[in-house]
């Protein structure tokens, strides 16, 4: 009778949107070929249909629209090339996007090919000009620096013809300078016995190794002169400015010449011919300078033309990338459909929310009308074997809490969603461990800054840490508000208590307060109206009092939290019509947990209300060891001993209650159905009503009693042992709260107050800086992360394992809004 009334009351409750995932339906689409592209585009804009791949057995190259996908991929490559070139040139591309529902990529493909060809040609010409410019510049520097070395060795009478014959070019592309020198220099017969030289330029970083190698190769029979270049040379590959050094190597003999040239080639040193005649040097220098001026003008003109071309591409780059990205997504989706050549239509299947069927029908009708198709698109529901995907409608506030739950596991279809309760319980448990209203205000300011700049930050590309922080801005907001609330209860502001809600209920025994820490204080008025009395701070029993209060509070919160999880398992079982789970899991679990730890919570509350000095450890231990013994001074209320015996018996009964009945009942019902004596529908977690008859019959034939029994035994043992371990796990609320309070006290007393005790401004400022640093990086960052992770564990393990399966899969509809640059 009671259960019937409770079920009727629950039926009359208004359903919550976030409590259960959206009801889904499996639909089949029959789309004419002429309207397929437009229909998929409209569905992508709507973003409410998840297509199923009907060509999973085919490779990507065997699908119908593989050529279109390749074209889109090639255009994406060209667009990425343009983007890289624009970024290297430092040109800002336009972020304005103009989207069209029907996109013809033929003209765009031709236009992109033309732009790419033009840009590649300009880059090639620019590289050649830059290479020639660098060679002329190096030649000019070598002429200027090598002149001094050659003048000092003028008395050695090196013939011009021999000198010019020994100097070589290291780069075949240096055509212009070679023709210049041919007008001034005529090679003559060589004299192997004379003194020769090779001049050139090398990177400064290679100079020391280069000189050492020359010395070893010639066995010291050479003279090496060097001078740093006055100008840096641009590397055409990396576009970096490189420091170089001019060198002149004097040597004798053909063999030494060959070795030196090979070493120069190996080290990447560029060798240039330098005439010894000063008049020829001046003439060549003037011609090189003239050509450098001409090349600079040509390079500047080419750079302006290239930047102008890149700017024109950049104006439309964002639009083009969006177009190509969408087109590729459309063709990828079309490849998931079956193409019927005879009927000239595409057949697709997928999941959609029932509430979105009307919107999908309207989008398909609009696609038929816009494509001027004579045949409409057919969309009708079908039966599906697999379980539907899970879809929760969230907003910017509820989304981070849903992500916290999904990180553990996506909810099974229509399963109770823990995110409904996580929204409040998670930040509250965090605040229990982080309770300090000074630190809470700091977190609140950070959360308000993120929320105030929400519109600006949502459009920017943030780093991984900042993106995570911005995504959880509303989680941070509630955590800070609850931290302020718990901090007011603990009466801690950066570990300092305040008389916010009136005077303390205690005072010293005399005016000197010399016995405050030894004998204690005297109670003179009613208890402090809200939170911990500030006089507890610094008293001799402060730690014992706070430890006792926070430990008992942690147990109370843990028992309530676990009971909520078991109650949600009842709502799950009732929603799926699973009466076996209600009778043989929910009921014995509630009895077992509350017979032991529910009773402990009752004792804690009674002790707080009566002010009894009973030892709860003794009560709980001897409840198991000697349940019939007299409690004596540990008795908290009349009838406590018989109540303990009853509760202990109920806990002992609940253990086999969870283990034995359900497997035997499942076996009995399976046998009756298999033998044809009963045809009632058995809707349990092992046998799902959603499955077709063939699949259900397959399960019936493979029913394995030993497997079911072992599974139930594991579940029962896990709950019984977990009740003890999970309750103990909630003591982390007490431990972390104590650690946070003591750490804050240490920084306040041993850093700030200690520095303030000195009559020195520098020491005080230093102490304040250390205190601020420790507060910001240790208490507000490390402690926040620690409390966050512990609250996360309490939700994932202690709370969700009571009812949450988390073996579903997310609803991932085809949507243009979810496309990113990585999808290209």
Outline the fold blueprint.
Elements: H1 2-11, E1 24-32, H2 33-46, E2 50-52, H3 66-89, H4 105-152, H5 160-166, H6 175-182, E3 195-203, H7 207-218, E4 223-228, E5 233-234, E6 241-242, E7 244-252, H8 254-266, E8 270-271, H9 278-334, E9 338-340, E10 345-353, H10 357-370, E11 378-382, H11 399-408, H12 419-434, H13 437-452, H14 454-457, H15 464-471, H16 473-490, E12 506-507, E13 522-523, H17 542-575, H18 579-610, H19 616-625, H20 640-659, H21 661-674, H22 693-701, H23 705-729, H24 732-756, H25 761-799
Antiparallel strand pairs: 1-10, 1-11, 2-10, 3-7, 3-8, 4-7, 5-6, 9-10, 12-13
Helix pairs in contact: 2-9, 2-10, 3-4, 3-9, 4-9, 7-8, 11-12, 12-16, 12-24, 12-25, 13-16, 17-18, 17-23, 17-24, 18-20, 18-23, 20-23, 21-23, 24-25
Transmembrane segments: 424-451, 472-490, 553-571, 591-608, 643-660, 761-782
Membrane topology: Multi-pass membrane protein
Protein name: V-type proton ATPase subunit a
Describe the protein:
There is one protein chain. The protein has 824 residues and is α+β, with helices and mostly antiparallel strands. The protein has 25 helices and 13 strands. Helix 2 crosses helix 9 and helix 12 runs parallel beside helix 24 (732-756). The protein starts with a helix and ends in a 25-residue tail after the last helix. This is V-type proton ATPase subunit a. It comes from Stylosanthes scabra.
